[in-house]
Design a protein that fits this description.
Length: 172
């Protein structure tokens, strides 16, 4: 967590995942408390959102990454920019899960806090990745893990971002 000259604290979070997993839906749901099903996936987005936590204003800067394909991994620049990483995959898309596994080698030497979100859990009839597999990946990355649906659980993202912030405070 970074402190600005004012009393406002800043937390920079990069939302990372394969195309089509719901990164933007989760980000927008966190920012607006609304669910929108379709988005323009042409470019990454940066959002700022102020939240009161324990009566302290926290400014979240969220980088919603936009890989062009499942082969397009995030740059080290993004990893170094962020205070925390929110890894997102879809339970309905095994390739999106494999994408996160590949990112592991990119960040293995980093101390940056990570949280893994398995999105689209409302589509259990299309499930390709088990809850257990997600939990194992989180254990391998030594991070937290939740299954959510952007259509219903925007507060879950809030708690994940809070987790990243708390982890930052204890590590610095």
């Amino acid at each position: 967590m970074r402190r600005k000259k004012s009393s406002l604290s800043e937390v920079k979070v990069a939302v990372i995942g394969a195309p089509g997993v719901g990164k933007t839906a989760l980000s927008v749901r966190f920012l607006t408390k609304r669910y929108i099903g379709e988005y323009d996936h042409q470019s990454e987005g940066r959002y700022k959102h102020e939240v009161l936590i324990d009566n302290e204003p926290i400014l979240y800067e969220i980088l919603d990454t936009c890989p062009k394909s499942a082969a397009d991994l995030p740059s080290l620049e993004i990893v170094h920019w962020a205070d925390g990483l929110l890894f997102v995959y879809s339970i309905t898309n095994r390739e999106s899960f494999t994408y996160l596994k590949r990112i592991g080698s990119l960040i293995s030497d980093s101390d940056i806090p990570i949280y893994i979100v398995a999105n689209k859990c409302d589509m259990v009839h299309l499930r390709e990745v088990s809850t257990e597999e997600g939990a194992i990946l989180a254990r391998d990355f030594e991070c937290g893990f939740s299954e959510v649906t952007a259509a219903e659980q925007f507060l879950q993202l809030y708690f994940q971002l809070r987790f990243i912030e708390t982890t930052n405070e204890t590590e610095r």
